């Protein structure tokens, strides 16, 4: 299965380009087994976008390499998958914690150092608490852009 790592990576990326090309040219939405709305609802319920069952998480911070039911690959190690998760976390921390804390400090409701400590602790708690949600979000956006990447949809494509 995992004979040569480099050739695996190359074939994956050429497959990716081919699938994007196919999507642009044929708009396969209508004949896809798993629709975009399925992908949204499944990911929001923290379920596998491919089979819709709860088997994506190894623990709070990590996805399983493969879905425990349908064996779909979940971790995309070549494409800096977890980078997306942390960057969304930073943006959320700035919007929901750091900006409100700054406003309170400027308004004189809390002191400067209380604000700094609140911002640090709040950001960490937010990122840790929402991490599984952020992972789901990254999976959601990935397959929303390329729904034909789902094994269920690929099988349908091949049979046609
Ligand atoms: Zn699955």
Please, could you describe this protein's structure?
The chain has helices at 5-26, 36-44, 81-106, 112-145, 151-159. It has one domain. The protein is elongated and about 60 Å long. Helix 2 (36-44) packs antiparallel against helix 4 (112-145) and helix 3 (81-106) runs antiparallel to helix 4. It is mainly alpha-helical and 160 residues long. The chain binds zinc ion. Residues 48, 50-51, 53, 55, 67, 69-70, 72 line the site of zinc ion.
List ligands, each type once: zinc ion
Q: Report the sheet with the most strands, covering strand number, pairing sense and barrel closure.
A: none
Q: How many domains in all?
A: 1
Got a strand count?
0
Report the structural category.
mainly alpha
Shape by Cα distribution = elongated
SS field, number of helical segments = 5
State the low-pLDDT regions, or none.
Answer: 1-10
User: What portion of residues belong to β-strands?
Assistant: under 5%
* Rg for CA atoms: 20 Å
Query: What is the H-and-E element order?
Result: HHHHH
Give the N-terminus to C-terminus distance in angstroms.
26 Å
Mean pLDDT: 81
> What oligomeric state do the depicted chains represent?
single chain
Tags for this model:
160 residues, mainly alpha, 5 helices, elongated, disordered N terminus, binds zinc ion
Give the SSE map:
Layout: H1 5-26, H2 36-44, H3 81-106, H4 112-145, H5 151-159
Helix pairs in contact: 2-4, 3-4
Bound molecules: zinc ion.
Compact overview of the structure:
The chain is an all-alpha fold and 160 residues long. It has one domain. Helices cover 62% and strands 0% of the residues.
